[in-house]
Give the backbone structure.
Amino acid sequence: MKKFGLTQILVVIAIWSHAQSVEKPRVIIQETVPASKSLQNTRTDRFAQFDKSVIKTGFLVDKVSDSSSFASLTKAQSKERAGSTGDWISTYHTLKSAEVSGSNVMKRDQLYAGIDELYSKKSHDSIPLGLIAIAFESIKSDAIQSNKIKYNSLKPIEIRDSKDLTDEHLKISISPLQEYLGTSGAVTFYFPDDYIFTNIELSQYPLSIDFDDGKGFQPLDFNKGYTVDYQTNGPKEIVVKSNSETQLAKNASPSMSAITSSSTLMVSTNIPNPVTTYFSTTIPTPYQYAGLVEANLYEYYSGPLDNPIIVIDGFDPGNERDWWETNDSNDPGLYELLNQNDFMEDAKTLGYDFIVIDNIAGADYIERNAYLLAEVIDKVNNEKIGDNELIIVGPSMGGLIARIALKQMEDQNRDHHTRLWVSFDSPQKGANVPLGLQKWIAFFAGVSDKAEDGISKLRQSAGKQLLLYHESGGSNALTTERSNFQSFLNTLGYPSDVRKIAISNGSGIGRGIKNNADLFIQPGDRLLTWEKWDPLFNIKGNVWSVPVNSTQKIFDGKIGLSWTVGLVFFPVGFTAWALIRKTSSTSFVGGTYSYDIMPGGWKDLPRDMADPIGGFLGPVMGDITTNTNNVCHIPLFSALDLPISFTSNIATNHSLAVQTSPFDELYYALLDNEEHIHISSKTHADVFKELVPEVLEIDPDKGWDEGDIIATQSIKILPGFKSKPGKTLYIDVVPNKLNPIGL
């Protein structure tokens, strides 16, 4: 994680309208470097001659934040507003920037990456807790008036009298380092040593903790684990409070008044547990992407492996998403994604066996994970019993992984024994994140934890391969990785020895994306607004959708600190910042396709950025508003691999679309666009038409007592089976034509 600060580069991007190539916008980048130093360095320079020995705790909050962020550190959280893992991380970075002692108490620069690594290695019967227990100081509000310090807007702060210069405070915050528990039964909470950050003697500050399990508060010991048995679903508020009335606490320094810290853990006990196995393979050195490739395989079936469906997870930087959850997010895990509208459980009722591949490097080069998939296909074919061939389901980027693996196996004369491949809202021709929003993320990455995390994900290998327009793409917003990958796909083609179907979450009648007023977004419409102007801090961060052909602004960002005329006093501490040059960036584009508003599977990317952003800006900058919560992520033409001209209305040209597409059948939303990889009732029905098994054995113990029993080749009825009155068996021997047979 970067330290707080923005690179002082004024980047003005002018992308001129150019009729020669609308898919490759022409961009002229001009850079000017202001003479002023970075915002963070300027704030730090105010304390360049500050005697650090005066700060006994080693932390001075005035060094980095204003009264709002100071208040956020000192106020106690309440049960009405429990904190989150993101709040805890934001507190960490604010205090890290306040550190003046050089003692390296806040010792992790890459906190997000560290938590992701901890998460990827976790067991689902244990949850790590993070602890922040930091004594810090603030300059007294009357420090200038009482002549204890001298402050000139153009010079560093000068200490004239260090006696009684600061007030001392204590911040204690505890949070689970994941926000979702997707399994029932006992779970153990523990404190990893690397996530205990403190400059106080913890034994002097007695604390109690309540895990919201009905057992109330119990003494908190950081050296032990706590086993909790959650038997109900819903949010659990983990609350820590001080025992400030003890004599030990009264004698502690700094003194501790009543402190409450609370965080939320979402518990779901409805998610079944699969058999999890680790799988790896090594790509040999002659191959372009040589090296180790790893995955977790979630095997979800009962009985023998005889009717396999292999599902490949999509884009997942840091492997945040697993079977149960997506770390530090409200997004569901793989089971809930795959079981929308009971899809997975209904398929299991038909006798299917699920093997879900969770790639550990979920944003690695796509070809690497395709190599691993081919190895898994060989493994499953060797282990399964019976004659049923495989079904491969690739949601999102997983559809590209499947395409590459199946085609390369055919090119190598390796039989994949696969009868059906489902490409589900997969970016066969690229994915979209609004270019203006990417510029927003890049601009604020230095001062926002969320933006920093976002730009890290955008710049992963797979992100550069997938995005149609990319903020790091240079003069045409096109990365080398994207250009090379699409050329590779064009040369590769599609597998032929398998039935291929494509599903899009986009509107089949050509409806675009709607804004928050339920009106269709137009090219160049504003997506996000963030402006705040006050005597201390000025900020702007506005985003527009990409226009069609004409040149238009898509991002306008600015950050500046200003000096209030006269002295600024705050009841909770001192803050005074000099007028410095503003950091700004403006981006214009032209000659482009407005992918942001096209029919397609949408994601709520603007709304996600409008959530609290954390870091230096988080506590002080007010609300970010969105004109639209959603934007197109996987355009319909990309998911179905069609020319962009088919965007207007595929439903009325379905036969022509199927003839034009490399797929054998196309499915899509009938009316409005749907969320990316949403399994609607229509999608459920469409896929189940394809999932009817070839060979089926009916066992009286398997519970075939609801609905019709269908197979495409043969049905074997085992002894003891009795149908209900009026029940009919069907055998599908001709596509889309069911023939009844009697019992």
Notes: The two ends are 67 Å apart (CA to CA). The longest strand covers residues 126-139.
